[in-house]
Automatic annotation (TrEMBL):
<comment type="similarity">
    <text>Belongs to the ABC transporter superfamily.</text>
</comment>
<feature type="transmembrane region" description="Helical">
    <location>
        <begin position="62"/>
        <end position="82"/>
    </location>
</feature>
<dbReference type="Pfam" id="PF00005">
    <property type="entry name" value="ABC_tran"/>
</dbReference>
<keyword id="KW-0472">Membrane</keyword>
<feature type="transmembrane region" description="Helical">
    <location>
        <begin position="195"/>
        <end position="215"/>
    </location>
</feature>
<dbReference type="GO" id="GO:0016887">
    <property type="term" value="F:ATP hydrolysis activity"/>
</dbReference>
<keyword id="KW-0813">Transport</keyword>
<dbReference type="InterPro" id="IPR050835">
    <property type="entry name" value="ABC_transporter_sub-D"/>
</dbReference>
<feature type="transmembrane region" description="Helical">
    <location>
        <begin position="305"/>
        <end position="328"/>
    </location>
</feature>
<feature type="domain" description="ABC transmembrane type-1">
    <location>
        <begin position="155"/>
        <end position="453"/>
    </location>
</feature>
<dbReference type="GO" id="GO:0005524">
    <property type="term" value="F:ATP binding"/>
</dbReference>
<dbReference type="InterPro" id="IPR017871">
    <property type="entry name" value="ABC_transporter-like_CS"/>
</dbReference>
<protein>
    <submittedName>
        <fullName>ABC transporter domain protein</fullName>
    </submittedName>
</protein>
<dbReference type="InterPro" id="IPR003439">
    <property type="entry name" value="ABC_transporter-like_ATP-bd"/>
</dbReference>
<dbReference type="Pfam" id="PF06472">
    <property type="entry name" value="ABC_membrane_2"/>
</dbReference>
<keyword id="KW-1133">Transmembrane helix</keyword>
<feature type="domain" description="ABC transporter">
    <location>
        <begin position="491"/>
        <end position="704"/>
    </location>
</feature>
Amino acid sequence: MAALKSRLGIQAVLTALVALLLLAMPGIPSPPLYVSLAGFAMAGILVASNTLSAYLKIFVSVYGVGYLVLAGAKTLAAMGALPATVAALLPPDFAATGSVVFAAIVLAVSHWKPIRDITLIADPYFASHDAPSREIGMFRRFGRTEGQIGRNLVALSIFVNFADVALTLRFNFFYRDMYNALQEFDAPSFWYQLGYIFVPLAVLNVVIGMFDIYVDSGLQLRWRTWLTHNLYERWLGEGTHYRIPFVDEHADNPDQRIQSDVNNFIAQTTTLSTRLLSQAAQLVSFIVILWTLSRDFVLPFTDTVIPGFLVWLVIAYAVVGTWLTHLIGKPLIGLDYRQEQVEADFRFALARNRIYSEQIALLRGERAESSRLSTLFHAIVDNYVGIIFRRIKLIAFTFSYRQASTIFPLVIAAPSFFAKKITLGALQQTSNAFSNVQNSLNFFINSYTILAAYKANTIRLGSFKRAMTKAEALAGAGYGLANGNDTAGAVTARDLTLALPDGREIVRGASFELPKNRATLLSGPSGSGKSTLFRAIAGIWPFGKGRVDVPAGQSALVLPQRPYIPLGSLRGAVAYPHTVDTFSDEAIRDALRAAQLPQLADQLDAIDSWDRRLSGGEQQRLAIARAILAKPDWLFLDESTAALDEETEATIYRMLRETLPGTTLVSIGHRSTLNKHHDQRLEMKSAGEGRFEPRLSAMPAPAE
């Protein structure tokens, strides 16, 4: 009953009723019996498809509507209920049955693993209940939710593609009738075909072509916008981007997966679903026409009858032609791949010269760099020459093949025409149908390159989503390390053990308390786990056991040794991680002056690569300015002043104590000069076997 209550269930009931009416209405000229029987099959397919993925349901639903429209229209035309002009534009009877065949194909392939992998990526968009995206005006009112808009656009795209196939079919019959009129010197029929058949078909063809581009572009743009937002928000959410390298799922270059792979996946999905199925519809339709035309085909100059000879001939012609094209063009795959590689190497070398221009100038390395660039560019030229000659060979064959395909069916059918066994219109119809079947077959056979790229995109996006799922699970304390805000005024650690991603422990059995308003200096040898302890306190380190608690409702800011500086204006770099409108210009200028960067106070709107323009010490002071603006309750400084001289470092610490009296400082540092700026020390002591244990002690009194 649940299936019948769904949209597909309602369609199934309507389809069965239409099929029953086609059988039960005596005296009414209705479509052939197979059309009625196909309706019952369609009803069964619709019910069985109720558990399909959200994306595949769209196709089955559209095919169900297609059957109702085509079967109903042909019945109305047979009853004389449609104008003659409209009835003349309808496709043949078997088009309705074709909808049932394609629905059955979708139902069958839904169990194929590659299809399931695709729908796992596609379904979230089409099942989405998010409000329509305001970024895009195209089709924004085409549904109440973004998922509904996507489903409606896919359905519309399928209808448009099948309308195009129906037009192509109708053009085939138009050419037959027009050439028959010419052969019979039937002027009224000729002008009727031109004025009342060709002109409406041509206008429809142009309109459908324009509308098809608009619908496809709108679908791809809206789908890409939603999926891109979904992936990068999930990637950046809750530190997932940080934890992905720690999981056992290959997910390198997330930038490529979010930007390039998403775009390619969506473009290829729409191509290999709507376009592929329209090609299948065209193939089936024109094979039926070719079979009808050559049902009793007699080989030229013989008495041998080969049923459907033209069908077998076009299949053999397309397969042989594609095989030869593959043999000639196969080296292009390797050449094109190498071209991308050598171009990337050359571009990367140029970028490194720009990044390390100061070092190259200091070492006088321009001549060596020029020689290396010359070698890399020479590889580009050599490979491209190979591409040119291979393309010439391929074009020579493909052009010859296309020219021959125009004449080939005429040569085969011409003897029958001259023997007056077929009309001029039938000869032209044969040539046109042969060409359409060949093009459809070539599309299927040549799609292996598209499918290879599509499979690669699907694998990359699938592994990226799995990696994010595992990283999110990692954040759920799956390794036994718990984070909370279960304290009133101190950062506490209880029975804390920290490990590296490979499982090796570096901190064991730590229990300590960092009280509010007491500056703590964390010290110890390199590799003792100081920065890892900071990450655990910040809640982003997943490997370990025990518990870390921070004061409830209090803010914290961690400043690493190498601060992140985003692209854009200086204002945005200083305000980060807040937005540029969070702080006033005067507040930002005051923060820069306090951080010993007065020379930057008047450059807030300057856009530059600040991570390259500023020295290491200036970048650390810019991060200090962020802390002054944010005024956190807790400020964790992970060697955040290591690039400063001791005097400037002392000035910065005094300024922080004075400017942020309500902020508790916790620092990692090696200089003994830091002692006087802190009240206590948390020192990482060796516990043997590469493990360390933090021990809290009072800061020694300064020497007299």
